[in-house]
Amino acid sequence: MGATLVIMAAGMGSRYGGEKQTDGIGPNGEAILEYSVFDAVRAGFHKIVFIIKPGMEPTLRALCGDRILSMTTPSGEPVSVVYQIQDFSSVPDFYVIPPERTKPFGTVHAALCARDAVDEPFAIINADDYYGVSAFQTIYDKLVTLPPKGKGAMVGYQLKNTVSEHGTVSRGVCQAVGGDLKKVTERLKIRKYPDGRIADTADPDAPVPLDPESIVSMNFWGFTPWIFEEMAVYFAEFLRGLAPDAIKAECLLPVLVDKLITEGKLDVAVLHSDAVWFGVTYREDRPIVAEALAALHAQGDYPATLKG
Prior knowledge:
By secondary structure, this protein is of the alpha/beta class. It has a single domain, classed as Spore Coat Polysaccharide Biosynthesis Protein SpsA, Chain A. 25% of the residues lie in helices and 25% in strands. It contains 7 helices and 13 strands. The chain has helices spanning 32-43, 57-68, 107-112, 133-143, 227-240, 253-262, 286-298, and strands at residues 4-8, 47-52, 80-85, 122-126, 129-130, 151-158, 169-177, 180-192, 198-200, 208-210, 215-223, 267-271, 278-279. The strands form 2 sheets. Strands 1, 2, 3, 4, 6, 7, 8, 9, 10, 11 and 12 form an 11-stranded mixed beta sheet that branches. Helix 1 (32-43) packs across helix 4 (133-143). Mean pLDDT is 92; it is low at 14-18.
């Protein structure tokens, strides 16, 4: 049966100040998403689906897409690549796009753009997050055991390892019991203070302290295709509830997952691995990530280059 990896690469990168999805941060110009592809294929994923902006396909093909077609899984299965566009053409007809809106509608919208290309269990990730070698094997092993409906998985990371020194970040803060996800609370302005404290500062007058050891979602989810119908229903509800001037509102996967768990429609296993997450939210994060990637090559986690 195998599994597909969906990579959400259509974000605007506004806080980064450029195309962080394709920025060559690795020692030989590798983008972070190239590490995800490499790790996924060696775990057994045999299809890569890129969710991209209009006009992005030639850049991604040249970066790694054409090279992926020469890759094989450990069992010798060739790897296929699909490019799906995230733009306003995939928004339901009943919704009128505000003229001022320039960005897509978030991660649920992105995931729905993969629907026509996915017919088997799949993992979905951000293009600009490094998730770690073992994380892909962990979720792959879980995906191939999932029943057709009602079950999912996520790889969890500790909050303290996912914040930036250079500004706020958004994270889905999780509550788990016995390895099962019970609730996800989307926190949109998490800040790390110089003394190590971490808080949600959405209300600057009343910041909410957060446990640095908390498990958070980094959008490393695993589902089966039945979830697409739930996504479509939720996305339509989201659009119907938008105010006319909500030109930046996003429909987010952690919020949908929390809703489905609350309604008893979805059980999500929280998977743990020894993998270390890192990513680039701000341009100032780049040197730290570049150093970490170079160290992974040096210690043998990756070959000298991913470009060969």
